[in-house]
């Protein structure tokens, strides 16, 4: 009897909650896997296995890293994920931020590269930051930091100044964070821009002019439902006339 995983070998496997994963996805102390949203490790005494919690396609953004891509609307924080957060409140020890989850997140004022009590970033209500989730628990507020835990450096985290923020599906954001996303490679070959992608459904884009920024945002948005072979042509169409429009700003 064919299963959902046998129906289309050209796409990532489609799984249902509780369905068995491919046999090669086993995890041991010598061969650990990193599990993202939609997957959990069953601790059955007789059979420890990885099972999906929701319906969707099994994705692998990096070696030994897996998650279920589904139509989930609300972001559920997970430790280690990168998010774009907006400051909604300030207190003595830091900031309260909106990350699009069920609960507001907390960011310590010292959770920045080189920050001290006398020298720390001063964020305002409405400021945007690119941050990493350090605590994710359904019974506690998520906690964030703006440094790479292995180096103590900012590594791209911190306040996002100017630019434009677009909202996108959680699945598109996760695909953009995979190695060599086609739309970003195609855009980078044509125009200069900065981008920060949060797995919480927010994407920040900045370039030297408004016309280029709008074009990048439009290309990223349109790429979601295109085949990889169609992305290059779409990017060329979107960028047509961008240089001329930029000169008239």
In a few lines, what is going on in this structure?
The protein is built from five helices and 15 strands. By secondary structure, the chain is an alpha+beta fold.
Alpha plus pi helix count: 5
Can you tell me the CATH class of the largest domain? Mainly Beta
Instruction: Based on Cα principal axes, name the global outline.
Output: flat
Examine the coordinates and then state which fold CATH places here, giving the name of the CATH topology of the largest domain. OB fold (Dihydrolipoamide Acetyltransferase, E2P)
The CATH homologous superfamily of the largest domain is named Nucleic acid-binding proteins
| Mean pLDDT metric | 85
CATH architecture classification name of the largest domain: Beta Barrel
Distance between the termini: 62 Å
Instruction: State the total count of DSSP E strands.
Output: 15
Low-pLDDT sequence parts: 1-9
What proportion of the residues form beta strands (DSSP E)?
25-35%
Strand order of the largest sheet: 7-8-9-11-10
Overall structural domain count:
3
The major β-sheet equals: 5 strands, mixed, barrel
Roughly how much helix do the residues carry, as a percent range? 10-25%
Protein name: Ribosomal RNA-processing protein 40
Pfam families: KH_6, Rrp40_N, RRP40_S1
Keywords: Cytoplasm, Exosome, Nucleus, RNA-binding, rRNA processing
Subcellular location: Cytoplasm; Nucleus, Nucleolus
């Amino acid at each position: 009897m064919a299963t959902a995983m046998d129906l289309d070998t050209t796409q990532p496997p489609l799984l249902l909650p509780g369905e068995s994963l491919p046999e090669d996805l086993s995890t041991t102390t010598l061969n650990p896997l990193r599990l993202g949203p939609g997957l959990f490790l069953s601790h059955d005494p007789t059979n420890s296995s990885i099972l999906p919690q929701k319906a969707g396609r099994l994705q692998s953004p990096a070696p030994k890293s897996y998650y279920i891509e589904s139509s989930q609307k609300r972001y559920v924080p997970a430790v280690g994920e990168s998010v774009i957060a907006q400051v909604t409140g300030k207190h003595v020890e830091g900031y309260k931020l909106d990350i699009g989850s069920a609960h507001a997140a907390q960011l310590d004022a010292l959770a920045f590269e080189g920050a001290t009590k006398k020298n720390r970033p001063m964020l305002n209500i409405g400021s945007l930051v690119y941050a990493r989730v350090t605590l994710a628990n359904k019974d506690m507020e998520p906690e964030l930091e703006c440094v790479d835990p292995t180096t103590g450096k900012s590594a791209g985290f911190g306040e996002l100044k100017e630019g434009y923020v677009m909202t996108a599906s959680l699945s598109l954001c996760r695909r953009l964070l995979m190695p060599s996303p086609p739309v970003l490679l195609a855009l980078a070959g044509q125009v200069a821009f900065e981008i920060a992608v949060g797995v919480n459904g927010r994407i920040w884009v900045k370039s030297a002019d408004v016309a280029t920024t709008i074009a990048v945002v439009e290309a990223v948005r349109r790429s979601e439902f295109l085949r990889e072979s169609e992305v290059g042509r779409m990017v060329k169409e979107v960028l047509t006339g961008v240089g001329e429009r930029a000169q008239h700003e």
